[in-house]
Amino acid sequence: MAGEPRDVVSTVLGFARTLRHAGVDASPDRVEAMLAAVAHLDVLDPTAVYWSGRLTLCGSPDDLDRYDAAFAAWFGGEAPRTRRPSGVEEQRVAQSAPLQTAEAGQDGGDPSDLATLASGEEVLRHRDVAGLTVAERDQLRRLFALLRPAAPMRPSRRRSPSAHGAVHRGRTVRRALRDGGEVTRLLHHRARPRPRRVVLLIDVSGSMSPYADALLRVAHAAVRARPASTEVFTIGTRLTRVTRELRLRDPDRALAASGSAIPDWSGGTRIGEVLKAFLDRWGQRGTARGAVVVVCSDGWERGGPELLGEQMTRLRRLAHAVVWVNPHKGRAGYEPLTGGMVAALPSVDHFVAGHSLAAFEELAAVITRA
Known about the structure:
Elements: H1 3-22, H2 28-38, H3 46-57, H4 63-75, H5 112-125, H6 134-144, E1 153-162, E2 166-167, H7 169-178, E3 188-195, E4 198-203, H8 209-225, E5 230-235, E6 239-241, H9 243-246, H10 251-261, H11 271-287, E7 292-296, H12 305-318, E8 321-326, H13 339-344, E9 350-353, H14 357-369
Parallel strand pairs: 4-5, 4-7, 7-8, 8-9
Antiparallel strand pairs: 1-3, 2-3, 5-6
């Protein structure tokens, strides 16, 4: 019996970490309040667990949608919701999918089932998306809703008041004049950071079709987080800008609109030619200048690798950093031996995997650090 409370506590702590990753300020005192509430409830009742967390962990109306997505992703099933009251109609809670595993569907149960489900979600985060079943893909879509990529920042010429930094001579002198001509305090300012542009080039050729949907969902999360400083293009036999389509709020609608706009889905690959078209039309004119450019491709190139190498050299001179995402890098024993990868890698700053949700989270961290 001594092990049961630890299972529930670890599950709640893991859920709190997921909430913080989704942007909800689940502070330690709020987590403690949820644990105190759960101690008086049936932990096998999904509605009770849902409301105990919602009433203790959420601090503003802006947290509610993120809380629902995190709850569905961490515990499985849909988050219980309330119906809008009509007249004197009483609010009622809709039933959700059970929190228990299939074996726990019998009468009774163990609180450790919550930890079992949580560990299942953790395993799914590291699974290769190309090998998932339809049900697992549906579950992974909920986890994609938790991605909140942070934009890399760059210093700007504009400065703002700060407690530290260079001395602002003008403000310091004006303050001294108000104090009778005596400098009583040094006032400081520092450069105000601005988000750096992020450009994603996503390969939608036939060899990348098992990963194209997941990569576009990552791109949708990036566009939703920073719509003004994120650009998304697809590459195959031609270049297609899909930034406008990915600005739709609903990810499924955004991907459907993007699919309609892409004429070369699951076609061939001419990365060198398409990259040249991007640099000539967009990159050289400012889109790639000082940006973090992310190329998502397995490197299979039908054209000559020499052209790809030349265009990657051009891109490296323009961009602040170049990141190459290859889904096959996450496989054991993989070596970048294809002609396209051999030509591209000398101009790449970060070479990362792109086969699972955990790899996409690491990609978001690499972009932020860049």
